Amino acid sequence: MPTKNSDRLPPGQYEARGWPVLNFGRTPSVDEQTATVRVWGAVEQERRWTIAEFKALPTVTRTADFHCVTKFSVFDNEWFGVAPRTVFDEVGLQPDASHVMLHGAEGYTTNVPLSALLDDDVVFAWRRNGEDISVEHGWPLRLILPKRYAWKSCKWLTGVEVMTADRRGFWEERGYHNDADPFTEQRYSYQE
């Protein structure tokens, strides 16, 4: 029987109850007092913020769905944080900037086209549905990229490397699809 959200459910997905936790390794220990977010690469001015400084940037609230490659989807999440456009306004993008590599704690990386990061529903978030995101879900800061599978929504964000060409990240180097569109089921690199 179709659910009320069946028109928003990507092929091969099911609507989850709750928000399951999946990590590629152990949950890192991140100290909000010493953690930083660095933006560098094809930008006019490299910048590093403490978490407190980053959270002091202008904030937004975005309501968006969340789709995991392991086939669960969570609808109508209310994300609170900073829009990528705000961050890039601070550093300025060079004209040849085309892709971004997101860096997380423990050496995790994932790549996306710059245009995907600039979508209006994307947010560097630290709150979901009115509560701080848990450490297991990426606190103190994680990217939310609703139109891609969740491995592109980098947890424990430490850096944004702006690039002039694409380069594969952690899961992309290990056989996951480079684009990760859930509505076309772009799960594995053999589909490219």
Features:
single chain, 192 residues, mainly beta, Sulfite Oxidase, Chain A, domain 2, 6-stranded mixed beta sheet, 4 helices, globular
CATH class: Alpha Beta
Number of domains: 1
Low-confidence stretches: none
Termini Cα gap: 32 Å
Structural class based on helices, strands and sheet pairing: mainly beta
Residues in helices, as a percent range:
10-25%
Number of E-state strands: 11
CATH homologous superfamily label? Oxidoreductase, molybdopterin-binding domain
Largest sheet: 6 strands, mixed
CATH topology name, in short, is Sulfite Oxidase, Chain A, domain 2
Helix segment tally:
4
What does this structure look like?
By secondary structure, this protein is mainly beta. The chain has one domain (37-191): Oxidoreductase, molybdopterin-binding domain (Sulfite Oxidase, Chain A, domain 2, Alpha-Beta Complex). The protein has 4 helices and 11 strands; from the N terminus they run E-E-E-H-E-E-H-E-E-H-E-E-E-E-H. It has helices at 51-55, 84-91, 114-117, 170-173, and strands at 14-15, 36-41, 47-50, 60-67, 72-82, 99-104, 109-113, 123-128, 131-132, 142-144, 157-163. The strands form 2 sheets. Strands 1, 4, 5, 8, 9 and 10 form a 6-stranded mixed beta sheet that branches. A 5-stranded mixed beta sheet has the order 3-2-11-6-7. The longest helix has 8 residues, at 84-91. The protein is globular, with a radius of gyration of 16 Å. The chain starts with 13 loop residues before the first strand and ends in a 19-residue tail after the last helix. The mean pLDDT is 93.
